[in-house]
C-alpha cells in the first residue's frame, strides 16, 4: 500500500494531478446544482409575491 | 431523427428528459471512472522510461482531448444557433464554454506536473503548450464576451462568430507536435498505424476518455438547465415545473 502511495518517487506529481482533476470536476457539478436550487427558490418566491 | 431532434430542442421537453437522464448518466460515469482509475493506477504496468509518473496520462490526455472536443461542440452548436436560430443550440454552445475552459486548465496543469519531473521544467513556450494556452484564452474570451452583452440572443450570436473563428486553433493544437519540434511527445494513440502503447495501458486510457465524455454530458445538461430557466422566466411550462418543486 505505501508503495502504491509512493508512486515510484513521483507521488507529489501524480497525486496532485489526480487531486486537482477531482476538485475541478467536483466543482463543475456542484456549482450548477446549487445555482439551480437557488434559481427555482427565487422564482417560486417571485411567483408567490405576484399572486398576492 | 429530425423529428426527435425537433422535439428534444423544445425547452419543456428538454428540461424534463434531461432531469430523467441525469441519474443514469451519473451512475454510468461512476462505474467507468472506478474501472478507469483502477486500471490506470493499479493494473497498468509502470512505463519503462517514465516510471509511475506516466500515470498522469489518465487525467492529462482525456482532459486534453475533451478541451478540443468541447470546443468543437461549442463552435458547431454556436453555428447552428447562428443559422437556424435554435434556442437550445445557443444554450448548448454557451454552456459548453466553462466546462471546456476547466478541461483546458486541467490539461495545462497536469501537463505541467508531468513536465517538471520528465522534462525538468514546468513550462516551455513550444507549439503544443502555447496553442493549448491560446485555447484556454479563447474559452475565456467566449465567456467574457457573452457576459458583456446584455441580451442573451445577441450575445449568443456574437459568441458563435468568435468561437467559429477560433476553430482554426484546433488543427494547430493537434498537429503542433508534428509541424514543429517540441518537447511534447508525439501522438501515441490517435494515429493511423498501430498505437505505440501497451494494451494494458491503453484500455484504462480509453475508458477514462469515455468517462470524461459522460462527465461532460452531465455537466452540460446541468448548465443547460440553468441557462434555460434563466432565459425562460415567466413561461408557462416553467410555472408548471415550479408548482411541483
Short overview:
The complex is a heterodimer of chains A (52) and B (245). Chain A is mostly helical and 52 residues long.
Secondary-structure blueprint:
The complex is a heterodimer of chains A (52) and B (245).
Chain A: H1 2-6, H2 11-51
Chain B: H1 2-8, H2 11-43, H3 57-84, H4 87-119, H5 127-148, H6 152-166, H7 169-179, H8 199-231, H9 236-244
Helix pairs in contact in B: 2-8, 3-4, 3-6, 3-8, 4-5, 4-6, 4-8, 5-6, 5-7
The SSE order of chain B reads: HHHHHHHHH
Q: What is the terminal-to-terminal distance of chain B? A: 32 Å
Q: Tally the helices of chain A: what do you get?
A: 2
Structural class computed from helices and strand pairing of chain A: mainly alpha
**What kind of oligomer do you see?**
heterodimer
What's the number of domains of chain A? 1
Q: How much of the residues of chain B is beta strand, in percent?
A: under 5%
> What is the percent of helical residues of chain A?
over 70%
Largest sheet of chain A: none
As residue ranges, the low-confidence spans of chain A are none
Low-confidence stretches of chain B: none
Structure explained in plain terms:
Chain A is mainly α and 52 residues long. Chain A has one domain (2-51). In chain A, 88% of the residues lie in helices and 0% in strands. Chain A has helices at residues 2-6, 11-51. The longest helix of chain A has 41 residues, at 11-51. Chain A is rod-shaped. The model of chain A has no long low-confidence stretch (mean pLDDT 90). Chain B is mainly alpha-helical. Chain B has one domain. The A-B interface holds A 4, 7-10, 13-14, 16-18, 20-21, 24-25, 27-29, 32-33, 35-36, 39-40, 43-44, 47 and B 41-42, 46, 51-53, 55-56, 59-60, 63, 98-99, 102, 105-106, 109-110, 113-114, 116-117, 215, 218-219, 222-223, 225-226, 229-230, 233, 238-239, 241-242, 245.
Summarize this structure as a short list of keywords or feature phrases.
heterodimer; A: 52 residues; mainly alpha; B: mainly alpha; 9 helices; 78% helix
